[in-house]
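Me: I'm a chemist; would you kindly supply a protein sequence with its structure tokens?

Assistant:
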Amino acid sequence: MELPNSIGDLRHLRYINLSETQIKCLPESTCSLFNLQSLMLRNCFCLEKLPLDMGNLINLRHLDVRGSILIREMPLGVKKLKCLKTLSNFIVGKGIGSSLKDLRSLKFLCGELCISSLENAVDCQDTTEMILCDKDLEVLVLEWSSSNPSQDEAVKIVLDILQPQKNLKELTIKNYGGQKLSSWIGDPSFSNMVVMKLDGCENCTTLPSLALLGSLQNLTIRLMGKIKKIGGEIYGEGCSKSFQSLRTLFFENLQEWEHWDPVENGHVQRFPCLQRLSISQCPKLSERLPNHLPLLDNLVINGCEQLVVSFSSLPMLRSLEINRCKGVVCCSPVNSKARNSMSTARESNFPVFRSWSRKGFQKLERLSIVGCQELMHLWPNKICSENAPQKLRCFTSLQELHLKELPNLVSFPDGLLSILSRVIISQCDALTSLHEGLKHSKARLKYLGVYGCPSLTFIVRGCLPSSLKHLSVGRCENLVCIWEGREDVCTSSPSSSYTLVHRDDVDTTTTTTSLLYKLNIQECHSLTHLSSTDQLPSTLAELSISCCSSLGTLGQLSKGLVSLFINKCPKLESLAAGSFDCNMPIEILSIQRCENLKSIPEGLHTLCKLRRMSIHECPSLVSFPKYGFPDTDLEVHIFGCEKLQALPSRMHALKSIRHLALYLCPNIESFTAEDFPSNLQSLTLPLSIYRPLSECGWHKLTSLRSLRIWGLPDAISFPEKKILEIKFPISLNRLSVLCFLELKYLSSKTFQVLTSLQFLTFSECPNLTSLPDLPPSLLSLHIYKCPLIEKQCKRNEGQEWSKIVHIPCVKVDGKFIYTLEEEMS
């Protein structure tokens, strides 16, 4: 995209917005627009520079170049823009570009300002004059391209002279290379400061007294690789209230951080309002966290391998995520006994969740534990007893539990999983049973996801939790079935392991009490059946099974089934034990890559709500049921069924079918227009049907709007010369010609009569050398992988240009033809 030079003639133009366009440069004549007030160039990713004489735009008030990442510097005349109020990004020039000192002239700047490429500010070493002190800024970002340790003194001077006014609300400093931040950062006189981010200040060894910023609510400290200790220096001396307004605190990627000293005592309140604390990728941190966090709502510890997370009471905690830490200790308020407990956990490297029944976690809603390698039980073994549910009263609000990469986790307390709403268990190699955790008379569980647990052979025995609506299982390589029809009694041995005792008198139809609505199963290669009784819950509406190489049967399908998706189940021979129940509410039926599937159940024609049926790559499928498809507003896709010999005989009688796609089915050899539903709107054909259908005439399909013809490898012209009179339906709106490897010529006579044709596609016709004369109705022409025709379509030069010049949208290999020409030139 480009602007014409004549834009400079629009002398009264006040507003230009070229945001998110592919413009590469602005013409120099733009600088003649003396009345221009707003120039918006946000996210112009191809824009490389601004006009050199921008200083002539003396009335410019707003300049936005956010996201235009190729601009390397501001032009020299920017300092002349005396009326400028908003400037999204001032990029310090190197050499002939604008200097940092030029910002002094822009006295009316306000709101948000980013100053980037500050490593180029080399002319400020001899000045102490403040650059931003007279500007009413609320948000300020100061950014260097990298934190170069060799320029410590120079960058410190630059940061000093960029001290803003006291009413600043948000401050971000990125890639600062000095060892110490300026004294104004953390100065309590910045009483309106709400957000601060210190990012990539790799050479800083200490932090300023940020706790003295009385209004600070959000603090992020990341990529500060030389920080080893955070302690008294951040809180300030003699301050009784530290971080009194802080609500979120993020530490991320502090590779050398070892010690956090909260400096807690009875006379000092630290973090009285903190609601969210996240510590991520701090591998050397080993000391304790602050104990007194009365309003903490969300705690995330991630990638802190030496840290034992210890806390006594977090009464407002709703979400707890522990990812790859050394351990977790829930202990009494800080005293010597607590410290001994934490020390023991560290020395033994044995994470254990102690005293969870203690008061103080009633509001916890979400618990996530990842990568605690030695964890065997969420609670000490003694809790896993007959009265375990009473021991879980501290979790009255717990709704979600996420467990991942716990290779030694072996069991759950009785009923724990059922009292939650959502449970996801992943990569727990030693877990052999979920049965105990799913036992509870007052189940609340709605979603259960189980992934990558190779020791599981079943999910549950007896009945599913009555509340469960969505069950998802994946990559459990030894799973044989989802649920066993028989129920078990759990007894505990002295080692607290479980023995399963089968009860033969239990009702095997207990799945009927389930409310299960959705079942997803993926990559369970030992799965042979879903239920040992072949009964599925009557409420099951959505069933999706993929990549289960041993599955031989689905059992008796639920009478309420709405969608059925089966993919890559090579041993599956039939979809149901019998036939489809009359008026079963199935809307979507999709069967793919089931090499052994031989038939579709009888009763297919009774599925009065079926709207989409896809059968792909089922090479053993020979035929459809006797009575064929239902007469519904149906979309049918049949692909790669090598033995399929015919479509149902009564297809022509179906008045409601609108869409039919049939290709790569070589044994279907003949069809006439009379064999198709007369109201068909969309049709995709294989090569084997093209010739006979052409001979009998397309014009009989008067409702046809879209036609796709696949692969006629021996055709030289389209339509073929031997077919003298071919009449496509005049109603045709969309035509695609695909995979004609020998196609060279196209018949102009055939295309010119298609007066309703708007969309035309040629794909994978490598020998196509010319286009026909196309109808004036055409709005879009797409050409894919047709290399010989590409050069012929070049604007004003190609032989085919005159045939396509009237088409609004022409794309070659996915790119607009004008863009393609620019790249070729």
In short: The chain has a mean pLDDT of 82. The radius of gyration is 35 Å.
